Amino acid sequence: MEKYDTVIVGAGPAGLRAARVLSEAGRDTLVLEKNRTIGQTICAGGLTVRDMDFVPKNIVDAEFNYMLLHTAKGSYDVDLGSHPVFTVDREKLGQWMAKEAQKAGTEIRTASRVGAVNGDHIIANDEKIGFDHIVGADGSNSIVRRSLDISVDKTVIGIQYISKTLRNDLEVYVDDFKNVLKYGWIFPHRGFTSIGVGGRTRKGALMRRSLDELCDKLSIEKTRFEAARINIDYKGFVFEDRFLAGDAAGIASGLTGEGIYQAILSGEEVAKVILDKDYTCPGIKHLLKIKNRQESILRIFGMNRYIPHIVFNNAVPFLLKKRSLCRMINDKYNLV
């Protein structure tokens, strides 16, 4: 039986960042990815300025210093100031992160599906592989998380079209969208556009209809449809010799849907814990502080269906006139 110091399940941003940090420290690290191509995942590809500590600008598709914010009461130009938003092709990001991990010494196997996680080994493509540590970086439907018997009780749904119709502006929609969702986006990329909607709802068909109507209204071609359920149910990330990172840990934002930064940072933090069991994880602690603040907003929104409508259509236009207050709120809640 082959054996590695650390086996990482999933070659997304969390798994690849963890692999790079571990390999740079000299640890024998294997990454197993179920898909044949790294980076083929459902994602709008939005990055904030926080991500740029980890992502080189030369792989970014576009940078936006302002956005168009649409509410039921009107549209607003929002100056993002020192918090620009970027877009990146997820496959391009994945390929770059994989190369960096491999340069550090990581072994990556694609088309390698993990079927079971046992006490000291996994079964991948009917092959037994041993480990001292295992990292579940395998997304919202994580087999590593299931092996720990940790349920997923809170999720958000994101649906999008990858469209051939090119757009120039970063646009965000906030409204109740027929009481189904709270957030919509148009993210321009190099050669395509992501247009999507997301929120906590069980009314997937109505959400799809809302997205179709938005595309038709804006004459955006519905080229390729994608949908994903995102785990936001964080219940820990260290379980003796087993670890969870990124969406497997449920660390994504339920308020904004942001997940790439959380994935990369949590992957790095997991690697540091493996290298030093006394590491105190300041990065994860900060992420969780912000996540808890954001979820307090979601709880308020959930009290009454009219609350988000009032906030989006009355409070938001007022706040946009108060730049210092907007900065303070963004610093507290990490909205962009």
TrEMBL record:
Record InterPro entries: FAD-bd, FAD/NAD-bd_sf, Geranylgeranyl_reductase
A molecular function (GO) term: FAD binding
Residue span, FAD-binding domain: 4-213
PANTHER family: CONDITIONED MEDIUM FACTOR RECEPTOR 1, GERANYLGERANYL DIPHOSPHATE REDUCTASE
Protein name per Swiss-Prot or TrEMBL: FAD-binding domain-containing protein
Organism: Candidatus Methanoperedens nitratireducens
